[in-house]
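I'm stuck. Please check this protein.
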Amino acid sequence: MTSRLFLGVVVMAGVVGLTANAEMLVKAEPSAQPIKPEPIRPTEKIELFNGKDLGGWTKVIKAETEAAGEKKVGLSIVRWNTEASPDKTWRVEDGIIKCTGKPFGYLRTQQSYADFKLKVEYRWADTNTVAPNSGIFTFTTGPDNHFLPKAIESQLKMGRAGDWVLLSTATMNGLENKANKSVKRQNEESSEKPRGEWNQVEIVTKGNTIQVSINGVLQNTGKDIYTDAGQICLQSEGGAVDFRNVTLEPLEKCQ
């Protein structure tokens, strides 16, 4: 089902509710497991992505039009557009989550989680963008009414993987944040692999703390996060990117 948020109103299956943000397109994929109201703390390995489809995830993108084509008619050039679609931005192919990077948005787990080790592999499929951009959100809270929800983003932007971005009004490390504050990684040197090669991200959350490693190198740590649980998101932010092997492990297996 695709829902539409626009002009301060959200419409979903005939139900109308108020929101104060710009238009978004939201499509929830059916989950094979019931969604629990309380956060899950893993006691065994959890495969967030089954390698076949995006069941249990929700696709959220900005509702935009994109150029579809043009042709010459007489002395004029006729151009036509097509509306963006969550299914165009996010798809599964050969066991890989493929993201076009356009429009901006994210792929969100419908279940909330706490106290875990998250592993994600990503590679840049974009060969044209100078510095393709994406990220992984944890501690995500709030409605899907903006392309940057309240969350802690582990930055994946080429050359800056391991930075934090405190999205919306999220707070961490005692920092004030009016909107989308960037926090540079503590490790000055990048541990990213070249474009086209697979990178592994490991994000460990325990209570109100977080740490992120890129390809086995610890890049950043944080504490005093505004919440201790939330949903997990993969970001669409301008660069074509692939994801695979998205898993959670219990903390006792991380020590």
Observations:
- The helical segments are 86-89.
- Residues 3-21 have pLDDT under 50 and may be disordered.
